[in-house]
Structure formats: C-alpha cells, structure tokens
Write a structure and sequence with these properties.
elongated
Length: 256
C-alpha cells in the first residue's frame, strides 16, 4: 500500500516537473519569437523608410519567424504608409501618398552584408488631391500651380494655374510599365489652347510616375474620389538593408 502511494507521488511529481518544463519551453519560444519579429520589423522599417521617404508600418506573415533558420525566408511582409514619397527623374517629389503593399517569399538581408530578395509583390497607392497639388508645386514652375481637382466620372485630373486663369486637364493611363498623362484640354482665360503647350509639365510628372521602389511596376491607374489610385505588381527584386540601421540589426535584417 505504501509502495503504491509512493509511486503515485513520484508520478505526480514527474508530471508537475514535465508541465513546468514544457511551460518554460513554450514561454521561452514565445519570447524568442516576439524578439525576433520585433528585431526584423524594426530593421525592415528603417530600411524601407529610406526607400519610401516616410514612416512605414511593417508586419510579418503567419509563418513562425524562427523557421527562417531553415530557409532564411519570410512568407509575407506587409508594408503600409500614410505619408510615403518618391523622388524620381522628373524633377518633382511625389509626396503624401498612401501605400498598402504585400511582399511574398522574402529572403531577408543577412548580417554578413549580403542582400536579400523579394519573390513577388503587389501594392495599392492612393494619391489624394492635396498631396498631388503639393507634389506638383515642387516642380520648377510649381509656383504657378494653384489647385488640383479630381473628376472620377471622367477619369481626369484638372490642374489649375495662376488661381484658375489657366487649366490643364490630364487623363492618366499605363503604357510600357509606367504611368502616362494625356492632355485632353488646355485653357487660358476661358479659351482653348493647343495641347502640346504644357508638355514640359507633363514630362516632369510622368518622369516621376515611372520610378517605383522594390521592383514594383504599375498595372492600372484610375481617378477615384479618394485620389489617384494605382495598382502595382512586382516580380523578383533585390532587397538591401540600410547599413545605418540600429546596432541590434547589424548590417542586415536576418535573425541568424
């Protein structure tokens, strides 16, 4: 009888020890996973803020980050920004646009300085009218641009110059992997003018709208009430970590 009681006590003690050990392992695993996600998202945020010229929110897919020890890949990287910007070849800075994007099969930049890669990506950009106006005003003749109105019904952008004395109506499109702007009407003092007069402005606008980071390229564009909306897709692209990232990230964003 005494032997049975002792065996039960030993069995109970063993179960308690195993439970404590399992709980400890799970807690340590959760803590390490949390740390790894924080380290990677912080490093990637720092890197992408340089690419996108504004604050970004980075989140990771459902795959446990500790499994990157096996393939060094993150299943999905989600990037959002409410105030991104791009400086392109056209002379203006596209600023104040909203970005919602997802990148798939991401190989993180390593701590030895070697770059990472992106397998594929898609993104949605919304560029509100006030942000379009402030961007156009960074052009060399931007002081003359005083207003922007969006017409979703006609899929057109009306650019006012000199307080409305002149105006240019543009229709956005996609050609050759870049955003295009076609002049449909030019007026001054209520009179129509040849459409080729504002070509300098159009060239500077479309020059910037052809420059996108991280291998993205526009697939479609339309004028909506919320702003100019651009759908982008991307294939395989290089991903290089910013060497000025904080010391916890080293020169790369991998946790290994």
């Amino acid at each position: 009888m005494t032997t049975n009681v002792s065996n039960r006590r030993r069995g109970t003690s063993l179960l308690i020890v195993l439970s404590i050990a399992l709980t400890t392992v799970v807690a340590v695993g959760v803590g390490v996973e949390f740390y790894a996600r924080h380290k990677v998202t912080s490093c990637m945020s720092h890197t992408l803020e340089g690419e996108l010229g504004g604050p970004v929110d980075v989140s990771l897919g459902a795959k446990p980050l500790l499994l990157t020890a096996l393939d060094h890949k993150v299943s999905q990287l989600n990037i959002r920004s409410d105030d991104a910007s791009i400086s392109g070849i056209g002379g203006a800075t596209l600023q104040g646009f909203q970005l919602d994007s997802s990148f798939h099969d991401v190989e993180l930049p390593a701590s030895d300085g070697s770059g990472g890669t992106i397998g594929s990506s898609e993104a949605n950009i919304v560029w509100p009218a006030p942000a379009i106006l402030s961007s156009l005003q960074t052009l060399p003749i931007g002081m003359l641009i005083t207003g922007v109105q969006l017409d979703s019904t006609a899929n057109s952008i009306h650019v006012q110059l000199a307080g409305g004395i002149s105006s240019i109506t543009l229709r956005p499109g996609v050609a050759g992997g870049a955003i295009t702007m076609t002049t449909t009407e030019v007026t001054a003092l209520g009179f129509g003018l040849p459409n080729d007069l504002p070509q300098q402005i159009i060239d500077q606008i479309t020059g910037n709208l052809g420059e996108y980071p991280l291998g993205l390229a526009p697939e479609s564009v339309k004028v909506a009430d919320a702003g100019l909306t651009i759908q982008l897709q991307g294939g395989r692209a290089a991903l290089i970590a910013d060497s000025t990232a904080d010391s916890t990230a080293g020169s790369g964003c991998s946790i290994f």
